[in-house]
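Supplementary Note 3. Input sequence used for the single-chain structure prediction.
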Amino acid sequence: MAKIRIKNIGKVIALLMRGIGATLRFEVEDKAGAFNTSRTGWIWAFWHNRMFVIPYIHELWFAHIPGAILSSPSGDGQIIADVCATFGFEAARGSSSKPQKGLAALIMMAEKVKEGRDIGITPDGPRGPLYHLQPGIIKLGQLTGGTIVPVRVEYSRAIRFKTWDQFLLPLPFSTVRVIFEPTMTVPRKMTEEEFEAQRLQLEQAMGGD
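The predicted structure, written as discrete structure tokens, is reproduced below.
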């Protein structure tokens, strides 16, 4: 019964996303070449509190590129996985606080990168700190040589929830600015200092409030 209830919640949220999404006005700044029809799949990096529109815009603009998303093994992660499934995303379940599951998810995501999928990762999730980029996405880029694109999302009007990530829900008929920042790739071999520099570069490119 619990699984059925969670799946239903996911479907309801997906309907809400589609309903609100249909009213939004999008402004796009593409510094990365995201709309280049010859590009293969990228690793999308976006903050946890901006994820609401990501599945919608991917389906709207990039439905021709299959997707996958990393979500935590928690109940909330299951809801996210169910929501994203309705938009054509496969889910890899992993957690930065549980190394074995995190490693398994990293390996699964690496396979999806090599398949040419667009991979969605919230590198400050699932528990934060807010706008602090955890190292997993850099490790994924290092392992695969995949292209990472920082995706910034700004809402003209939104409700801010009192959650750890200060989740933002765009109001109907508001304007959403989507910025695809220049892409980056991560060298396979790095010192600890070079790794931290890559992590900090991506964190800064993603911005914040």
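The chain has a mean pLDDT of 90. The first helix runs from residue 2 to 21.
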